[in-house]
Predict the structure.
Amino acid sequence: MRAGLVAAGLELARTGGPDAVVLREATRAVGVVPNAAYRHFADRDELLAAVCTAAMHELADRMSAEIAKVRGKQDNPAAAQRRLGAIGTAYLRFAHEEPGLFATAFAVPEQHTYASTEDADPTPLGLLRTALDNLVTAGVITPTRRKDLEFPIWSTVHGLATLTTHGPLRALSPTQLRHIESQTWDYIGNSLS
Amino acid sequence: MRAGLVAAGLELARTGGPDAVVLREATRAVGVVPNAAYRHFADRDELLAAVCTAAMHELADRMSAEIAKVRGKQDNPAAAQRRLGAIGTAYLRFAHEEPGLFATAFAVPEQHTYASTEDADPTPLGLLRTALDNLVTAGVITPTRRKDLEFPIWSTVHGLATLTTHGPLRALSPTQLRHIESQTWDYIGNSLS
DNA sequence: TCGATTAGTGGACACCGTCCACATTGCTAT
DNA sequence: ATAGCAATGTGGACGGTGTCCACTAATCGA
């Protein structure tokens, strides 16, 4: 039941973003009276937080899938670089293919945190970190350069994603979009050398 | 009156973000009945769009102010670099000091655009562009490198701002925050050379 | 078997966005 | 000067939403 409410909320979020996950409609979808939700969530924000966690999870899954597609051993420099690229493209593709879910994943209400489902499965930040560590072991970058590099890179990709999906750059033509994206990849790659 | 509604909405947005700009409360603040707002705005989203424009304007103003503080001629390389830094710090400071307004500035509803108040006054992107052009004329970077550089840089700063104010990085301690920020400045500066 | 915890129901309240018909104002053209 | 008209604000209403309260039905361990 709790899972059903979250699933329903996730579907609402998919098409309408975080504001569209409305408690009453989620209960309607699962065929129950609105107040039943209060047996599983303290309030609407707690339901939303669960939906946000699920959305973030889906992002992480897509990133993992894209990383897994890259073949090549750990210490292969080219493969390590391709894995970093896979992370970035998966991030951006998710943002563009599922703008509602993407926005929701980062819309966890103030005073709430991501409800840790299984702490074992990876977060987007965790995936990025192992990819960067991998760049070090493959000899692409020095440990000095790698230090805290995840934050600038995450910022760049995340900023590009938000600006081009919900932000002022959302009206760009596909051509301009691809151009700016490749420009940003060059920019990131430049920071590795 | 229209201006009053926008001002009231701006104050609501300042403390509670875009969701807090509720039509009825804005009319209450200006001492009028809710329906009166519909003489000036088609619906709540149009009011919100106006408030978003105002918030974006305030961001641009703060950026301009910070840029103006930098002394040094146009063709002074060090000054040109400091101006770019001023843009970034102003952006981040605005996000941290006024998280509600910052979120609102980028929350213009789908299907709406920023209501162009005076097309003469600068946008954040415009300010960034002239700063980068300035870096070229000062001889800090080549025209080739400058091309479309505003987008990766904007993405980086914007991503950092959103991740650290509303995103998963919002709980960072001030120390960690400063560290990550300076790390990001280095990262950006690295892309100039 | 029974009593308590749990899950869901029904009804109500305040608030919100929005629509309708109406009153008031102030300016313009005769 | 006055008749008419556009603009602005009012009053009342409706459906939708989050949330509270008291109540019922079912499950399960003692």
User: Anything to note?
Assistant: Residues 13 and 21 of chain A are 6 Å apart (CA to CA). Chain A touches chain B through 32 residues (CB under 8 Å).
